[in-house]
Each structure stands twice: as structure tokens, then as C-alpha cells.
Amino acid sequence: MMKKFKWSLPVLLVAGLAHVYAQDSHTVANDTGKALYEQHCLACHQADGSGVPNLAPPLIKGDFVAGEKKKLVEIVLNGLQGVEIKGENYANPMPAFDYLSDEDIANVLTYVRSNFTNDATPITAEEVKKIRRGK
């Protein structure tokens, strides 16, 4: 019985540390994503992701946000102009943010996909890199 405990304790400690590290990494990525959102997106999409009627679409529970990752990354890389979402037209052109790093794009999109009532999977820097390269 004691031998099981000797092996269990180190395993539990390692698992616990891995969990804490993963939470810290997620928190850092989320904080970075939030800071990038505030710097690059907030003026048009607003602090709460509600957007501006007829100008900038909301990021709340949207197909663009929670849908296909490739489409969302391409919008950030290439910009977007004149889009209709849920019967509403949005005329304000969104500039391309292709100057942001793959990691920055992944962080800001992961932030958007996990906030504003969204609950979508994260986007990784590797996914952004592949989409940027057209692969």
C-alpha cells in the first residue's frame, strides 16, 4: 500500500503543477489577447464586442467569430469591406492586420472567441502561420 502512495504523490504533484502552468499560460494569453483587442479592435467593435450599427459588426455569438477558423484569420489578415451579417449591412471597411505576428493574431482571436458570450476553441499561432502561407 505504501509503494502505491510513493508513486502517486509525485504523479499528483507533477499533474498539479502542469495544471497550474496551463492556467497561467492561458491567463497570460488571454491578457495579451485582451490588450491587443483594446489596441486594435475596440474602437470599432466596442469594449463589449457589440460593434456599431451599420458600421462594424458585433462579435457577440457570431458565425464569423465562432465559425471556421480559417475564415476568421483571413479576415484579420486581409481586412473586410461591405459585409452582411444576420440581415444587417456593415459598410465600414476593416483594415488588414497582416503586420501583426502569428502569435498576436492567435491571441487576439482566441480572446474574441472566448469572450463576448462566445465559447469557441482557441486559435494557435501555428494555425495562423499555415493560413498566412496559404497552406
In short:
The chain contains six helices and two strands, in the order ααααββαα. By secondary structure, it is mainly α.
Notes on the structure:
The termini are far apart. The chain has a single domain (40-135), classed as Cytochrome c-like domain (Cytochrome Bc1 Complex, Chain D, domain 2, Orthogonal Bundle), CATH 1.10.760.10. Helix 1 packs across helix 5 (102-113), helix 4 (69-78) crosses helix 6 (125-132) and helix 5 (102-113) packs across helix 6. It has helices at residues 2-40, 42-45, 63-66, 69-78, 102-113, 125-132; strands at residues 83-85, 88-90. The chain has 135 residues and is mainly alpha-helical. It has six helices and two strands. The chain has a two-stranded antiparallel sheet.
Indicate how many domains the architecture comprises. 1
* Poorly predicted tracts of residues: 1-5, 7-25
As a percent range, the share of helical residues equals 55-70%
For the largest beta-sheet, the strand count, sense and barrel status come to:
2 strands, antiparallel
Oligomer: single chain
Strand tally, please? Answer: 2
Mean pLDDT: 84
